Amino acid sequence: MALPYREFAAYKLDDLAERTVTEHKDRITFSANHLSIQWPLPVRWKGEPEQQFAARLRDFRKQLPRQSDFSRRLALATEAFVRSGVTFTNAARLVHAELRKVPWLSGQQQARWSKLGIPHKRIPVKIGATRRWHRKKRKGKHCLSHDPEVETIRVQAASFKRDCVGFAQLFDFEFAMFRELFRDPDWYCEAERGCRDWMLRAEKQLGPCHQQTAEATLQLAELLHEQKKFSEAEELYDLALKRWTDAPSIGARQRESAMASILLNKQNCRQGDTTRTMIAVQAPAGSQMRVVLDAKSGDYQVQWTTTPTE
To answer: pLDDT at position 6, please?
Structure first.
């Protein structure tokens, strides 16, 4: 199955982080609908020469986006289309087509979120920040009305790729985060295979009662749960519950939270529900958690026992 490069391109163009004035004077903030990026301002070290600090400050301002991360998003989206099998120029045309949808889509999202009382800013699309192509000379008949904008996108994306050190690594990192967030079928195959290998290595090298073995077992159970492999997931939830109980190096609060989540997820598994739950347990004061098996229902239950005080 082909990797979701086109979906990734549309996802990157769907938001925009713009420079925002905040109360924090020691950092520069870029805010979007789904994220907030903070750039801490360089601080002069003790004994650092003034010229060296000035050079660090110049390097910081070079890598800082001007007013938004639009160029970065253009470059990532263009590279995604290129990796899907088109030329760089055609990738710029596809990016332009996606950008034309953004104002309408962001308006729809703004209306939907406003009904829930959640602020959502509308994404403006302004291609090109200079006087490029703003000429009085009449265009040739062969030039379509949107060709200048396509060329601007191509040049802006190419410029960012040229100036960005380690752009290939940046793209791979962003694409991996996107796949983990939306989890396509190929991602599940790779993640399940890697998680099984992790669990087997941990069992062999660290033993079945180690914290890493317990974490790997639980993660594999959750992956199978999400893929609706309920019977296998339920077996691994039981195994994970035993390992989280027996692992000596796990803290009490972490153990209790993990065990409570495992019990809820196992119950969802039995009901054919792919919902997974991760909860933080607030234990009553002076008490300890105990997991008991109900003989009638076959389900595990959590009980709190009070520790007597002297």
So the answer is: 93
Structure tokens at 72: 């970065």
Per-residue model confidence (pLDDT) at position 292: 47
Q: CA torsion sign, 197 to 203 to 208 to 213?
A: negative
pLDDT at 34: 84
Q: String of b and e for 166-176 (b: at least 16 CB within 10 Å)?
A: ebeebbeebbe
Give Cα 270 to chain centroid, integer Å: 29
Quick one: pLDDT at residue 160? Answer: 92
**What's residue 308's pLDDT?**
46
3-state secondary structure the chain: CCCCHHHHHHHHHCCCCEEECCCCCCEEEEECCCCEEEEECCCCCCCCCHHHHHHHHHHHHHHCCCCECHHHHHHHHHHHHHHCCCCHHHHHHHHHHHHHHHHHHHHHHHHHHHCCCCCCCCCCCCCCCCCCCCCCCCCCCCCCCCHHHHHHHHHHHHHHHHHCCCHHHHHHHHHHHHHHHHCCHHHHHHHHHHHHHHHHHHHHHCCCCCHHHHHHHHHHHHHHHHCCCHHHHHHHHHHHHHHHHHCCCCCHHHHHHHHHHHHHHHHHHHCCCCCCCCCCCCCCCCEEEEEEECCCCCCEEEEEEECCCC
Distance (Å, rounded) from C-alpha 60 to C-alpha 55? 9
pTM of the predicted model as reported, rounded to 2 decimal places: 0.71
Q: What is the pLDDT of residue 282?
A: 47
Q: What is the pLDDT of residue 295?
A: 46
Locate 171 and state its tokens.
């793209």
Are the CB atoms for 120 and 33 separated by under 8 Å?
yes
Spans of the chain below 50 pLDDT: 130, 132-133, 142-145, 279-293, 295, 298, 300, 302-310
